[in-house]
Every structure is written in C-alpha cells, then in structure tokens.
Amino acid sequence: MNTLSYGLLAFLAREPSSGYDVMLKIQPFWQAKHSQIYPLLAQMEEKEFLTSHWVKQSEKPDKKIYSITDSGIRKLKEWMYMPLPDPVTRDELSMKTFCMWLTDRDNAIDIVETRRVYFTRRLESFHKMMESIPEEKRVFGHREFYDYILIQKGIFNATAGKDWCEWVLGMLREQQAKEAPAQTVN
C-alpha cells in the first residue's frame, strides 16, 4: 500500500464516503486524481480493507459509498507505527525558479505572483476551516484536534510560501525600478 491508500483509509475511517467525496476531502493534504483514487479503492476493497454499497439517486447517477472494515482499521493502525520517511518535495515553482535566468523579468514576476495568489487563497481557505473547530475541541484526544494541528501546519506552510513570494517579488520589482530610468536615458 502507498501513502495515498493510507490517506484514503484515514478519511473513510472518519465517515463512509463516495470516491468523489474522499477525493475532495484529501485534496488539501494530498493532490490526487480520480485516476489514482478509484483503482486504489477497488484494490483495498479486494483486500477487504473496505466494503461498499450503492446508493440510488433520483436526479443523479447512483453512487458507490465506501466504508472501512475492521481489517482496514487494523491496517491503518499498523501504518501509524511504521517509520516516517523523509518528505518528498515536488514543486514546479522550484524548478522554474532554477531556470529563471532563461526568461525575462516580467515573466519571472508573473510566475511568482501566480504562486503568491495561490498561497493567499490557501490561507483564506485554512482560516475558514479553522473557524469551524470549536476552541474546546482543540485538545489532544478530540478528533478535531488533529484537524486543528494539520490546518495550522497548512497555515504555517502557506504563510512561509507567501512570504517567500513577496520577498522575491520585492527584489524583482526593486531591480526593475532601478533599471527603468537607466533604460529611458539611452
């Protein structure tokens, strides 16, 4: 099983859901597509970590609801005791930053500004999520505590990313402003 499989089990341990609903729930933590999620759900159902049933809908296609089994809970608990590997970072912005010497400053600014806007939206989303967790449930033992600390991690990461973008944009724009008068004199 891969990390995404365990993530799917984790969301289904909280509540039975359709594959589509699980995909939406996991997105803030792990970017996954339908093409990844549905085969994993089928494999875990074959291994009896999940069960499913169909729900008829009148105005929409029927949907398959997945539930975790006792065997799935045991598998998820085993995973919690496995050693944590080093994190894997795959960020296209990092690769484009490495190659920015190949582009013009306006494009470099556009690239970084696009990511700054992304981080701003993420922060707004995380703060909205945070509002839904009552203060008294932000303590160890409550299920919401784990949501709280993960949302806080998201806030820290998005804040750091936004701060970095603003720092880079400040440098690029400052250099652009210094060069602008020199270019008009020629």
UniProtKB/TrEMBL annotation:
Domain Transcription regulator PadR N-terminal: 8-78
Gene3D superfamilies according to UniProt: 6.10.140.190, Winged helix-like DNA-binding domain superfamily/Winged helix DNA-binding domain
The Transcription regulator PadR C-terminal domain, residue ranges: 89-172
Protein name as annotated: PadR family transcriptional regulator
Native organism taxonomy: Bacteria, Bacillati, Bacillota, Bacilli, Bacillales
